[in-house]
Amino acid sequence: MTQKNSCDSREENGEKLVTDQAVRHVRMQSPAHTESSESPRRRGIQLAELFELGEDHKIRLARQIGISHAIVGVLPVLSRVPRNQYLRNLLEIKANFQAANMVFAGVESHPVPAEKIKLGLPGRDEEIENYISVIKALASVGVSLICYNWMAGLGWYRTRADVRDRGDALVSEFDNESAKKQGLTEWGEISEERIWKNLQYFLKAVIPVAEQHGVKMALHPDDPPLSPLRGIGRILTSAANYRRILDMVPSPANGITFCQANFKLMGEDIEALVREWSAKGKIFFVHFRDVTGTREHFQETFHDSSPLDLPRMLQLYHECGFEGPMRPDHAPTLEGESNDRPGYAMGGKILAIGYMKGIMDAFRIPHS
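RE: above sequence
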């Protein structure tokens, strides 16, 4: 069936411990820079998965099911070293993924500590200097994506992680009434206005550096997208607020992680947002997931029982020219798996990737 295109619309001295030759060597050995006698690397959606360091079993599984792009949590390593060692550590991380025949495509969650920045606490300028250093280091090793969030005090938040779904698979749930009963956090009440000021302070400091070095800053929505959450104001809760942020520091480096379920929970027309922000080149990364319910009360779902028309969403991303990393997110925990990191076990991700690849192949949507 023919589809109408719907989208017509000063380095630290310590860094010298790593030579330029070493950086060039790593770049040239990565799959993205390796010459091949085959046809040029095809364009398309980059199927990706999120990895913590040391998850060798998960990396092997990911390669076995055809995932070739790694989004990596580097905070546990970089938070323990001075900034003049960021480059050395990132080179090692990249080399490890290359050895597994994977592209180190981006980092997710803040690559260095940022809680003082988000909360506006003493010490935030030091954290910003670290952030600037890590942007430069990532660019030096050819990593051009940072998926970050502005959820101060609390990260993505659930009130349960053991809700039984199909066949007793475990999914996570958020219920705002339950969250309210948990009371304020150690930070007490923080206004949305304060969160806005802290974000603007950060963006004005780092976005020009990211633009200069070709690194895309992909801002993730609040999860859940409501405010306040246990007394802390949240601002990534509507498309209008995203437009305000994009206008706050206009730059090709200032963009979005399109976590589609969160935009759905905002009550937004997510297809219209994909068209709008794709036309402006602002969707840098996609979290492919869905939920049932509302922002006040929702549960995660299996990808193949999503209320959203996920095949249509994949077509839409393709029609709108999206060719960045996309990963399934918050999949159920299946039989025999540990639920110590709800949403991040591999069983549900294997199903999700197979589901996504089947749809893309059926609709001739290129992917890598």
